[in-house]
From TrEMBL:
It comes from the Bacteria. Its EC number is 3.6.1.1. This is inorganic diphosphatase. It catalyses: diphosphate + H2O = 2 phosphate + H(+). The keyword Manganese applies. It is an enzyme of class 3 (hydrolase). InterPro entries: DDH_dom (IPR001667), DHH_sf (IPR038763), DHHA2 (IPR004097), DHHA2_dom_sf (IPR038222). GO terms for cellular component: cytoplasm. Pfam families: DHH (PF01368), DHHA2 (PF02833). One of its GO terms (molecular function) is metal ion binding. PANTHER family: BNIP - RELATED, MANGANESE-DEPENDENT INORGANIC PYROPHOSPHATASE-RELATED. NCBIfam families: PRK05427.1. Its cofactor is Mn(2+). It comes from Paraphotobacterium marinum. The lineage of its organism: Bacteria, Pseudomonadati, Pseudomonadota, Gammaproteobacteria, Vibrionales.
Length: 306
């Protein structure tokens, strides 16, 4: 019976590239595995897999009765809807522990690094399996994406070393130039439907019984959103209602300025702003904030738990 390797709903580059890379490793050590996905590819992820000659993993939404290996999360809200009817055989993640549970023992590789693909690189080293050139390329790109070219506070020495090793294997002499190509793809928002933008990198979290949605759009210059901010606000208001969410946050992240503008709708806006020390009438600019998992989720979780 094959294992399906899957990331989270609305997959990002880490989820997709990680599923491909981990499935290859599993097959190399004699465990039959199939990379899969829980949604469509973002423009950045499509750019990456096209660049290195891959097809998108299998689109599969239902896993009842299947064995699954989870990549890039441990949250039930981000897993397949029928995850309770599947058998989780392993997890690779770099986020906080969520609420996924298993009925059988499982393999866990969880490290406080900038990207799941950094951990998958550790797994290749542990099992002494050579990384193919094309897989090294997508793993490297996923790390560069998740760490925002090492600007994110989630970046560790392990992430930097992994990128350097993977760049050599992939034959990429200037990985910074490739990262900037990726970011330009992310920044091309003109003509894209607003809902598609809001959901481009979006995750739901359970915070003390409250459903909280957090989206993030990383671009080279957030002025590209100036003409559509009212549309973005209208759409996140609708999305909040559609999903019965307590709060919905959209981060407009400026890679070059190294900060984010926070757009939000909430049943308790004062609570959310207090989590980030923002006054009711203040600007919602968060200087130095690039990471959802390290700079947004922890203070929000603390606010909901207080």
């Amino acid at each position: 019976m094959s294992i399906y390797v899957i990331g989270h709903k609305i997959p990002d580059s880490d989820s997709i590239c990680g599923a491909i890379a981990l499935a290859h490793l599993k097959n190399e050590i004699g465990e039959k595995a199939i990379p899969a996905r829980l949604g469509e590819l973002s423009p950045e992820t499509q750019f990456i897999i096209d660049r290195f000659g891959f097809e998108a993993p299998l689109l599969k939404m239902n896993y009842a009765g299947e064995k699954v290996y989870i990549v890039d999360h441990t949250e039930k809200t981000q897993a397949p809807d029928d995850i309770d009817e599947a058998t989780i055989v392993g997890i690779v993640d770099h986020h906080k522990l969520g609420d996924l549970t298993s009925s059988t023992p499982l393999e866990c590789w969880i490290r406080p690094v900038g990207c799941s693909n950094t951990i998958i690189k550790m797994m290749y080293d542990f099992y002494k399996v050579d990384i193919p050139k094309d897989i090294a390329g997508i793993m490297m790109c996923a790390i560069l994406s998740d760490t925002v070219l090492f600007k994110s506070p989630t970046t560790t020495t392990a992430d930097r070393r992994a990128v350097e090793d993977l760049a050599l294997i992939a034959g990429i002499p200037d990985y910074e130039a490739l990262a900037m190509e990726m970011f330009k793809v992310k920044s091309a928002v003109e003509g894209t439907p607003v809902r598609e933008l809001v959901l481009r990198d979006f995750k739901d979290f359970n915070m003390n019984g409250h459903k909280v949605g957090i989206g993030q759009l990383e671009v080279i210059d957030i002025s590209v959103f100036d003409s559509i901010k009212s549309e973005l606000m209208a759409d996140i208001t609708n999305l909040k209602a559609e999903g019965n969410r307590h709060t919905l946050i959209l981060l407009l992240t400026d890679i070059m300025k190294e900060g984010s503008e926070l757009i939000l709708v909430s049943d308790d806006e004062k609570l959310i702003k207090s989590a980030f020390n923002l006054e009711d009438n203040s600007s919602n600019w968060l200087d130095g904030v690039l990471s959802r998992k390290k700079q947004i989720v922890p203070p929000l979780q603390g606010a909901f738990n207080s």
